[in-house]
Amino acid sequence: MTERLACFKAYDIRGIVPSELNAEIAERIGRAIADETGAKTAVIGHDIRTSSRGIVDGLTNGFTMAGVDVTDIGLCGTEMVYFATANDAFDAGVMVTASHNPPEYNGMKIVREQSKPISGDSGLWEIERRTRERDFSRTGSGSVNRRDVYSEFVQHLLNIVPAQSLRPMRVLCDAGNGCAGVALRSLEPHLPLEIVEMRFEPDGTFPTGVPNPILESSRKPTVERMKAEKFDFGVAWDGDYDRCFFFDENGSFIEGYYIVGLLARDMLMHHPGETIIHDPRLIWNTIDIVTSLGGRPVCCKTGHAFIKERMRKENAIYGGEMSAHHYFRSHWFCDSGMIPFLQVARLLSRSNQTLGQMVGEMERKYPCSGEQNSKVDDVDAVMKRIRETFADGKLDETDGLSIEFDEWRFNVRASNTEPVVRLNVESRGNAELVREKTEQLLKMIRA
Questions:
Q1: Domains observed in the chain
Q2: Reported pTM
Q3: Catalytic residue among 19, 51, 52, 99
Q4: Minimal CB count within 10 Å: which of 72, 213, 253, 354?
Q5: Is 52 a catalytic residue?
């Protein structure tokens, strides 16, 4: 088999510029997308990386050479491309971004009509083949126009979480010098919130590092600022702001697992009886909250393509992954980093509890290990050893191995891209048991 182009990954396109991705390859990708989707119209947006405009120009050339009319919405977040594609009935949408990869990378996230994802077996490998083999059938002369969709996007957000459902609060918002600051400045005049800006200026040189708040080193400045001043809560985003991360009033970082529970609670308080999708890594808190509020929890394999597909199948109102990806039916089943920010504000607005108190209750009922990553020589051997050791537990293989006992459970799964095993452990109210079992499992994994 001919080796695939290095920039094509399982879910999107991501590579080093210019060796793995450049304007010429982007042009070919544009032509390949046109052939694969049959698109006559496409919308393109881009993040703050210094190489993004060059990639956009190449992509635009490829589209127009195939007769596709292109609308360029400029600097934006990934969710704005999802919004524009579906809201304005484009045939395809492309966000030029490498999310939280190092500065020398760039990439693309691609969707069809109604912002249905294109990844792996849903068309991405065929786009890769056409790009690599220069197998293009369409020719034409498409048009290009530029458009600002920020005001429409802000109205879309306010239709989902109305400003009148919020009370005045002081919130630290850390955009990490990514794209989020631009969106927040468009949104803020409509909100009763006092938004305190942190690293709002878009800067593709990443002066304080690539924003990826799931890493402790990346979120450290946010935590320090939260502890130095008084805020009701804090939020930080990654570069293309399709993921958001929360901090309580004391500056404590909140595990993404508990945010899934919070957002599920907010959704079901406003939309009783709906279906909520969650990933299999940590589940008990989410299931408890959803069932207690009359909702229907459905477990789905980790990964945006799987979650979006399952949400459409179940017509779920919300889907959440502990990795800080949150998906909404009202957003065409796509992920958003702005909707969760507004939802948490709404939840606090109608509660007499602080965010720390809300999360503290969940942490006490269902303490967890957080994701523990280990590099290993032989992933299969590790998984076999774990399966045999815990053969007396209840096994589920939705994603990796989930093994459940009466008082504790764990999920262990292999990375799709590297020889890494990811472990998550939780219990029913026993933090010491979580520590003990996490230590036992890590010894086995790292042996």
A1: 13-146 (3.40.120.10), 167-247 (3.40.120.10), 268-346 (3.40.120.10), 372-446 (3.30.310.50)
A2: 0.96
A3: 99
A4: 354
A5: no
